[in-house]
Amino acid sequence: MSKLQALVYVSSAIKMLTPEQVEYLLTRARERNKQYGVTGVLLYIGGNFMQYIEGPSSELVLIYDIIKSDPGHTGLIELMHCDIEQREFCDWAMAYCTKERNVSVHQYNDRSILEDKLGFSASDETPSRTLLLNFWLRNSA
Known about the structure:
This protein has 141 residues and is of the alpha+beta class. It contains four helices and seven strands, in the order βαββαββββαα. The chain has a seven-stranded mixed sheet with strand order 4-1-3-2-5-6-7, with helices on both faces. The chain is globular, with a radius of gyration of 14 Å.
């Protein structure tokens, strides 16, 4: 079995997305991620994305290549890419959250899901959670 890796990047949408466009993007990502065993979370706030993805290294590279070639965003900056021991978002094909703090995790929609996942004690603080939480807190209403 391939080793697990995690990756975090930020980018900016080339234009503000409508809810329908976001839903289309998520549907495609969730189908593709499930096929390749990739899980994670996508934050979209004020036209900016932060995404955390995790999975087997070869599949993660494949998904990230697709993301990098997507013309719908620009200014992609990779913040973290590292080996991990276990998944942080093992049940999330692709969670999604907006500045309105609506969270969509598969069939569940609950404003507090992401904050509960990102809220951490010193024992489970990780670099990826720190990046996601800081992006979340600095851009939340």
